[in-house]
Write a structure and sequence with these properties.
Oligomer: single chain
Mean pLDDT: 88
Radius of gyration: 23 Å
């Protein structure tokens, strides 16, 4: 303890989150000081500008384990999300248990196997063909939108006939899901770019 009663301490935190840490220190004369420190341990996301209004949201998602940053702290916001990654995110968000489903291109010991099985069983994602999932394939915004609407349990029939996005053809299988998501307030804007790949930022 310094003469003014202050002191410093180093604490090693193993995971991101909010902490309340109690610290006790003694001086040479046996005097004791106690402090309660409130600490927020957040990941550093270095390739997104501090003034970006979504930076805190991304840092929060990294802290919760939905995304990761590289060894330099870069998020790589324009990188496309793979089908395996999207399956893991949806399953984690809904708290689903891993499921064992057999796909020729998904090793049973893969880190994503259980999430892929759970996402397919829940109907959030579909195999590209019988027995094939294509885990490294990209996710279209249309397919991602469908999965989100399904995961949120939106009553698609309730919003039948509601206005959709200008670039979403009415006859497409995903159209009613995106229309319902828009009407339910999940999606905004007049266009959706359904065939674009889902990026980490979007």
């Amino acid at each position: 303890i310094k003469a003014d009663g202050s002191f410093s301490s180093t604490v090693q935190l193993k995971s991101f989150g909010d902490y309340e840490i109690g610290v006790k220190a003694k001086n040479k004369s046996g005097g004791e000081a106690r402090r309660i420190a409130h600490v927020q341990y957040s990941p550093q996301v270095k390739d997104i500008a501090d003034q970006a209004n979504y930076k805190k949201t991304i840092a929060g998602l990294v802290a919760l384990g939905y995304f990761s940053v590289d060894t330099k702290g870069n998020f790589d916001p324009e990188k496309n999300v793979t089908r395996a990654e999207w399956a893991r995110m949806l399953v984690k968000a809904k708290g689903l248990q891993p499921e064992k489903l057999s796909f020729t291109d998904v090793p049973a010991n893969s880190a994503y196997a259980g999430s892929i099985g759970a996402a397919v069983k829940a109907g959030y994602l579909l195999p590209v063909k019988d027995g094939v999932f294509q885990p490294r394939g990209e996710v279209s915004r249309a397919r991602a939108g469908m999965g989100l609407v399904q995961a949120e349990g939106v009553d698609v029939a309730q919003y039948a006939g509601q206005p959709s996005f200008t670039d979403v053809p009415v006859g497409e299988a995903y159209a009613k899901y995106l229309s319902a998501g828009r009407s339910a307030g999940m999606f905004k804007g007049v266009s959706f770019k359904p065939m674009n790949s889902l990026t980490r930022l979007s």
